[in-house]
Amino acid sequence: MTLQKLVNQIRKKKSFLCVGLDVDLTKVPSHLLQTEDPIFEFNKAIINATHSFAVAYKPNTAFYEAYGVKGWQSLAKTIAYINENHPDIFTIADAKRGDIGNTSAMYAKAFFNDLQFDSVTVAPYMGKDSVEPFLAFEDKITILLALTSNAGAFDFQTQMVNNEELYKKVLQTSLTWENSQNLMYVVGATKAEYLKEIRKIVPNHFLLVPGVGAQGGSLDEVCEYGLNADNGLLINSSRGIIYASNGTDFAEKSREEAQKLQQQMEKWVR
Amino acid sequence: MTLQKLVNQIRKKKSFLCVGLDVDLTKVPSHLLQTEDPIFEFNKAIINATHSFAVAYKPNTAFYEAYGVKGWQSLAKTIAYINENHPDIFTIADAKRGDIGNTSAMYAKAFFNDLQFDSVTVAPYMGKDSVEPFLAFEDKITILLALTSNAGAFDFQTQMVNNEELYKKVLQTSLTWENSQNLMYVVGATKAEYLKEIRKIVPNHFLLVPGVGAQGGSLDEVCEYGLNADNGLLINSSRGIIYASNGTDFAEKSREEAQKLQQQMEKWVR
């Protein structure tokens, strides 16, 4: 998917909502546990209920790998279902991968070719040659971790490297990499005040913002500091939407929560 | 597996060789491609041929994920085969994972509980709460990226953070995390001169050293600067061993290459 198509979707739906499909079987409504593939059935119901209000879905691979081969099958079925039924929706494999060049190329193959995701999240620690194999896929998006929403972000990401924080160094350095126009960045919403600084370095790139909702960020603050002319934001909510209810009404309730967020976003969409 | 068992194995086999099972189907002998699971058949043959000279096996997950569900099945069969037939051998899921706390816990579950690896490699960028869920498994080992063997290591890892390189800050900080005694560290062999400095910070921990062989590090230099009283080293070779031949003699040739490395290590084992 091209970035322009994503921007069009955002304007059409008046939403930059991304729904995180982080499915934990201990939190799934019990009536689904009898089905052959409860994770996929859960995702399908959530997708059917929320797709009018969301422009992106983001399964976090950890939640699938935890269930082994069966989990990986659920992931493959989920992405195939989205691509078949909602080809306009942007898909993110939240995998936080990164390795030496030839190995990163295998990860890129896994998520871009085999599973057919539009994008994948990547960790920056190993530098340029660990990220460029992802960027080499010109019709795909590579989403680099910059400033994450967890407490541990302060261990290294905000440490000063030559008079600037490491995450700023990551942003600046990544702009010099080949096909850097295919980058987006992960920026935690719990640190909305940082968005202003970040926008000075990457005014035009999209930011994927986790941490609204369960992780505690303010939507309005993120919009105030993060929006650009293309909107340039994907704001993720996982638990607040997908676990809105654990009864048979879970899909309906997820729709209501997604709609609430869409309605808060509507006034901001450009 | 306890670290003491690993140390015993090293002394018994006079080897600290780790064999990297990074299986690329384009490099596998063509006669295996007719079998139902060429990746597993390849791994089984390599394991059968090299286990007398190796104390650890390290599949890199990228090479399995690239083949989707089938690849993940091959990974599951490979680790099950090792655990069943060679329970004394230390196993490493080279996965370079890391995410916010509850998500890292799912990754830990995937590799420690579901697949039953002894250890997993983890990226440090997201800090303490992204690593501690792995460390919480007290009978398992968490192998933290410190200084990697690729060119991109100089982008961030060797940048100065408050008068010391980032990778040193990572080492020092990680020692303050709960259950830090369960840590090992990835240190690239292409930078043997750094090992002396690293040993000042982590004198007692094991180091997993990739980059001997195809990536160009010197085995003797690594031993000179990296060994400690427990030996404290796992030196990995992947391509040099597993692709020693692409004919029907591939397993025999892999055995010869593994033996050569073991013989070079023998004089260093303490």
Strand and helix layout:
The structure is a homodimer of 270-residue chains.
Chain A: H1 3-13, E1 17-21, H2 38-50, E2 56-59, H3 62-65, H4 68-85, E3 90-97, H5 101-114, E4 119-122, H6 128-135, E5 141-147, H7 153-156, E6 160-161, E7 164-165, H8 166-174, E8 183-187, H9 192-201, E9 206-209, H10 219-226, E10 233-237, H11 239-242, H12 250-266
Helix pairs in contact in A: 2-4, 2-12, 5-6, 9-10
> Largest beta sheet of chain A: what is the strand line-up?
1-2-3-4-5-8-9-10
The shape of chain A is globular
Q: What's the number of structural domains of chain A?
A: 1
Query: Which pair of protein chains has the largest interface, and what are the residue counts?
Result: A-B, 59 and 59 residues
Query: Which regions of chain A are unreliable across 5 or more consecutive residues at pLDDT < 50?
Result: none
